[in-house]
């Protein structure tokens, strides 16, 4: 492995801390781009320093490590350390019913033993505890619950599970779980099966063993929707099996369900023609007509061609035109299909439809009026080049329309499509642009595309491209610190525009990185942040965000009167960490509380 990177001194401690937690817990909320360096640091970290650093790490740097994440990692040592920290009043305990669920879904019997036998904590669990264990195929966890229930350590009334246990086990092909439910060792556990969803899960996953298991127990249930799911798989054996079962199943008070006589609506998730077309399964379409005897419904039949375009498979389009040409190939149908092909960026599909049009130029002109904005927003330069090759004057007609050009460039900017901007620039089409109506800088900032901001300002340095406080406000809300840095670096040319919404939305999303950015700018004197409103402060307390509150308080952004009256809120929601913080920051003579505080604590 490569040696650890050279880092600034101020980053070494927190990174080593994060590396230590990674080594201990294997729970990492950081972005993928940081993994390599942190694991490299963890690898060279002296093993004797892990124990020395852990308490500091958990208390100062890794507040995201809770009993829930420790349970998911299967690390009992980490669970014990968190409990010891809470008992020394250095770190409040944080956990939910997800702790039991996470432990079971990872197959960690020792974690469940810790919670029930060693933790000494009050806790509860939901049906997800068993459902998730079954979904992941952990028979050992199911055995654990059955043994606890049979020994009386867990009351039968407290054992919760749903039909999702069987359905998801089938979907994930965990036959061992199905056999477990059928075994005599499960004690009071009885399988809960939703026949409709379980059968669809078996069909969708091509799980023949599960189908046999369901049918042998008369638990399989076949409906017209089941045929659609079979068609999605593209496997004719499964489709034939479902078809045969449907022919013999008696439904609706004993009436034979003649699926061969059903005419499905074109746009319907149950429609096998629609599903097969959307998936590009031409062989399934052949089977439905030739072997199954099914007939498509033609009310709005043009949508079948639309689905064929969405599949990107010209063979599906050919099938519909050859089989039912009169129903799908009118001028209006082809215009809609061509617009859809352009939006999806499929040059081959667009060219195929273009060749089917009786009046290609008119069809393409109508399609471009519908699709060109999305073509640019999706970055489909190949489509732009294709239109230029086929009918260049149509492209120039759209680009010389200032309103249309503005919409196209705004869409490209919002989605970071630099190549589209360069394409328009190469054809000198910006001469038709009304820069005063352009919203590119606001849109690029909101979506975090610094490369778009650089492109516009470098290509047109003297052009007054408009922007508003939405640029920084939304970038702040979305956590795009790199965008905020870019705007700060250009203060001499473009003054910062922002509103109180920038700070408010940051707080609600726990944007610590964004908050640090605003804090740094305030220290530099480039911004003046407003104080938070009472509603905002109380919202932070509702969610127990003590670290964020403390940071805001140090900046002088938390009004003192909101803290004085906050004991009720913190008590009501059970946030001891907030109570500790309030008491440590305010004179006791100023604190106010009512019966509501005790009411919340009692609940």
From TrEMBL:
Coiled coil: none annotated. It holds the Pfam family Ank_4. It comes from the Eukaryota. SMART domains: ANK. This is Ankyrin repeat-containing domain protein. It comes from Catenaria anguillulae PL171.
